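wait is this the right file?? whatever heres the structure
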């Protein structure tokens, strides 16, 4: 009888143990699940950032040389647009683009040589273009000034992105890695276009080796002071037929100059010539 009673009590204790253990186990599982979710939120929540979208730049992706001497004489202002792109999800409100000038490396004076216009990334958008207004001043006739642009972190874009990678890859590696700064070299002097010697450039094909004397001669003879990248891309770019006409004009004008004055020499003492096409 005693043995049976012990057996019954043991069964009751076992049942009780199972009965009260289950709720505690369930609560423990739920708690661990919540902690796990919070950890995942912390691990995968990406702070918003913004960067200069150099994939959209034509020609040199890190800098551009701008000279008012290549423009019309009455042009006192011009604008360069800097494309930017948001990293992360779009927002439900407008956000200010924190494009600024690095004062330690720049020689241009804000308000005198340039003005950066306040720009926002519209709600729901990923991209924007920041206008940098360039100003023609007397000192640019003898000096070239530099405007080093960069992105600073702010409250709306706290994540500072120092490098971006091209989406195109070779063997899994990005073709290009871009720093998040951009240089504008500003003057009112004849400067070599950044894309003169690059592959596919019509500058090099139709006009040959660069010199400041030759380029000024080209501007005067053709009457074209505004040249797009590579002399062939962008707004109001000349067609190949127009470039053929420009080439013929240059060859004829150089011949007429040499008949009257002898060989034209550039700033380095080299004779100005044009390639035979």
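ok assuming it is, sequence goes like this
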């Amino acid at each position: 009888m005693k043995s049976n009673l012990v057996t019954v009590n043991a069964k009751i204790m076992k049942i009780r143990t199972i009965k009260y253990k289950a709720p505690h186990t369930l609560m423990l599982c739920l708690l661990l699940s919540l902690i796990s979710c919070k950890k995942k939120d912390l691990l995968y929540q990406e702070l918003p950032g913004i960067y200069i979208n150099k994939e959209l730049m034509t020609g040199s992706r890190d800098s551009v040389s701008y000279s008012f001497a290549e423009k019309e004489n009455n042009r006192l202002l011009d604008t360069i647009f800097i494309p930017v792109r948001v990293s992360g999800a779009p927002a439900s409100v407008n956000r200010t683009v924190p494009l600024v000038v690095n004062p330690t490396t720049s020689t241009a004076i804000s308000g005198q040589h340039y003005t950066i216009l306040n720009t926002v990334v519209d709600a729901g958008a990923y991209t924007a273009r920041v206008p940098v207004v360039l100003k023609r001043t007397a000192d640019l006739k003898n000096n070239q000034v530099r405007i080093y642009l960069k992105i600073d972190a702010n409250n709306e874009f706290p994540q500072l992105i120092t490098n971006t990678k091209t989406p195109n890859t070779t063997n899994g590696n990005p073709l290009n890695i871009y720093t998040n700064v951009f240089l504008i070299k500003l003057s009112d002097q004849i400067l070599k276009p950044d894309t003169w010697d690059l592959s596919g450039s019509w500058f090099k094909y139709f006009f040959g080796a660069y010199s400041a004397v030759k380029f000024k001669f080209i501007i005067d003879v053709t009457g074209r002071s505004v040249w797009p990248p590579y002399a062939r891309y962008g707004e109001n770019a000349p067609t190949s037929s127009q470039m053929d006409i420009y080439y013929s004009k240059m060859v004829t004008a150089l011949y007429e100059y040499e008949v009257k004055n002898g060989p034209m020499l550039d700033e380095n003492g080299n004779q100005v010539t044009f390639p035979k096409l």
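The helical segments are 2-44, 202-207, 212-222, 240-261. so i think its the right one actually
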